[in-house]
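User: Second chain of the day. Same drill as before.
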Amino acid sequence: MSSDAEQEYFSDGIAEEILNVLARVPDLRVISWYTTRQYRDRALESPELARLMKVEHLLEGSVRKSGNTVRITVQLIEARSDTHLWSQSWDREFEDIFKIQDEIEARVAEHLQLTLAGKKQVDIEVDPRAYELVLSGRHLLYQLSPEQARRAEPIFNEAIGIAPDYAPAHAGLAEAYRQQPADPGWRTRIEAEVDRALELNPRDSQALVLRGYLIYYVGTETLTRADVETAQLSWRSAIEANPSNSDARRWLAFS
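Assistant: Same format as last time:
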C-alpha cells in the first residue's frame, strides 16, 4: 500500500500484479487481490487475518513512487506464529518493475520451499507510462460504476496511443466499454478490443474473460450447448493464464 492517496491506484495495481505472478507458482494457493483488499483497512493481527482468509502465510508490503523511481518493500510472514520469514526492499527505476516482480516470486518460492516450473513468459518491452496508465484505468474499473468506467476509457486510449501493441490496454478498454450502458455499437466496440488484445497475446486473462462473457451473456437469443462450452473454455483459459482471476471463476461457476 501507499501512504499517498493519489497513488492508491499504483500501489493497488502493483499488489495485484505481484499476486498474479505468485498465483502461477505450482503448489502455491494464492488468495486473489480482490479478496485481500477487503481486509486492507481492518486492524487485524496476522493470525486472525490468516484465519479469515484460510492461509498459512501472509505477504505484506509497501510501494512508494517518486518520479521515475519506485521503492517496494516486501515481507513474508508465517501467520500462526506471526514470525517474519523474509523481508527485502528494492529501490529501482520504474522500468525494472517486472524484474522486481520476478525477484519477489523467486524469493517467496525459495522461502516456502517451492519449485518454480518453467512458467516464464516471453519478456516483452512495456512502456512504463502505458503500464502506469493501465494500472490507473483498472483502479477505476474496480469501482464497478458506469461513471468511473467512462473516466477509465480515455486513460486506456492514452495507453494505447503510447503502446499500440500492449494487450492489457486493449483488454482494459474493452472492460471499460462493458461497464457502460449498452448502445447499438456497444458489443462491436468490446469485441474489437478483445480481438485485438488476444491477437497481441492469446493468453491475456482479462480478454479471455470478456470473450466468454460476449458468447454467454451477449450471444444469440438462444444459447446453444456449443456456445456454453465455448464460453466455459474461454474462462478456463483465463484461469490458466491467471489463477487469481475472480471474474473468470465466478462466471464459470454461474454457467
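The longest strand covers residues 83-93.

User: Great, on to the next one.
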